[in-house]
Each structure stands twice: as C-alpha cells, then as structure tokens.
Model the fold of this input.
Amino acid sequence: MTSASASSTVPAHRPVWQPLLVRAVIALAFGAVTVFWASPSVQVLAVSSGLYLLANAAVFVWQRKVDPTPKTRLPLLIAAVVSALAGVVAFVSMSDAGTTAALSVALGVTGVVELLFWFWLRGASPLARDWIVSGFVGVGTAAALPFFTYLGAHALLGVTGGAAIISGVLWILSGLSARHDARIGAAGPKAVN
Done:
C-alpha cells in the first residue's frame, strides 16, 4: 500500500493513520451488522445507515485536523457535512427510499472526494493508490443503490455493507502501512538499516 521512502511526505507527528484505522473499524462494524442481521427492518436500515454516516462524518473532521495537506481540508469538510446531513436524513426518513437517497449522496460525495485526493496527490502521497480504489467503490455503490431500493432493507444493507467491508479492509491495510511508515520516519534511517 505505502512505501517507506514515501514516509518523508507525511510528518511523523501527524498521525494520519489513526483516522484511517478508525474509519476501517466503523466500516467493518457496519458491514458485520449487514451480514449477520438476517431480516432487517426499514428501521434497522435507517438507524444503522444513519449511525454509519454520522460516524464517518466525525472521522472526516478528525482527518481534516491531522492531514498535513492543505489541499485536502476543504474536500474533507464537504465530505463531513454531507455525511452528517445524510445521516440525519436517514434517521428522519425511516424509509427505504429516503435512506437510499441519503446513502447514495454521502457515498457518492465521499467517493468523488477520494478520487480528487488520488488525482491531486498521486505522486506525493503513498495513500493515493488506496484512494482510487476506495473512491471507485464509493461512487459505484452510490450509483448502484437506487436500483436496489425496491428490494427493501435487506438488499440495501447487503450492497452498502459489502462496499463497507471492501473499503474497511482496504483502510485497515492503508492505516497500518501509514502507521509503519510514520514510525520509520520518526525513527530515522539509522533504525531501518
């Protein structure tokens, strides 16, 4: 995912890996709910999706504070605001259509933000390769969800949860790689040799 030589682009005192790992845990927890809940109701869909989106919004705010790249701060704020609003919409709507719309907008915006990060920082950040995959997963899920609305909560949670699991695994690898690179950067080249 990342390389030790790229660690110099991210200062060691900036723990960018922490929001990645927390976001991964949130995504995997949401994915586990979708896998193990046999017959979810529309209320389970709305509440779990709302909590997932609100938790992502909080992580985006945190990531914005620790990310050393000035170019990423506004897109992270946009992703945070859209995810938070979408989470509220999911709670309030308590419907398949409302929750689908909220998830589609939030995942679509987040996916576009990650694709922008990849495009802007593809030579400067070791996480760029992960952003392109995560971005396409988000945009693809956002585009696919409306086609599953008529199938109900179980199908919607299956599509969203599957994407969350894929992204969660990717973010765990990204976060652990970024953590490793930050430790190598903090220790200096003598510790690596």
Notes: The chain has a mean pLDDT of 87. Helices lie at 17-36, 42-66, 73-93, 96-121, 128-144, 153-187, 189-192. The chain has seven helices and no strands.
